[in-house]
Amino acid sequence: MGQKVAGTVYFKVDGRQLTVTGAAEAPVGDVTRETIAPGYFSEVDRTPYLKVDAVHTPDFPLNEIAQGTDMTVQCDFRNGKSYVLSGGYMVGETVSTGDDGKVSLEFHGVEGRWV
User: Fold this and answer.
1) pTM for this prediction
2) Disulfide check for 24: which of 1, 9, 20, 79 has CB 3.0–4.6 Å away?
C-alpha cells in the first residue's frame, strides 16, 4: 500500500494561515558537516529556516511579515510532520511578482524543531 509523503502543505505565520503553492522547505538537521579526511569531519551549526512560495492574496499580511522579528512560523507537511520555527524573521530581498502573483518567503529564526 502506498503512503502519501508529498502534496499540499499548510503554512502559518503567527497563527495566520497563508495560501501557498508549495515549494516549502525546512532543514532536516541542526548542523552542516564537511569531511576533512576519511572518518574526520567538521561541524557547523545551521541556522533554522523555513522557505515557501506564497500567493499574494488581497488579505496577505505583508506589513506584519515584513516588520516581524519574533514570529512563530509553522509548516505542516503532507507526510504528517510539522516544522515550527520560533523567533522568526524574514531574510533576503522579498518581492511580489505580478506575472504569477507569488511572494517567495524565507524565514530564519532562533530555534527550529520537527514535531
Assistant:
1) 0.89
2) 9
Burial of 115 (0-12, 13-18, 19+ CB in 10 A): exposed
Task: Say which amino acid occupies 110.
Answer: V
Pairing of strands 16-18, 10-13: antiparallel
- pLDDT, one tens digit per residue, over 5-19 is 556 789 999 999 999
Distance of alpha carbon 31 from alpha carbon 54, whole angstroms = 27
- Residue 61, CA distances (Å) to 13, 32, 65, 70, 112 in order: 9, 33, 6, 15, 22
For 22, the grid coordinates are: 508549495
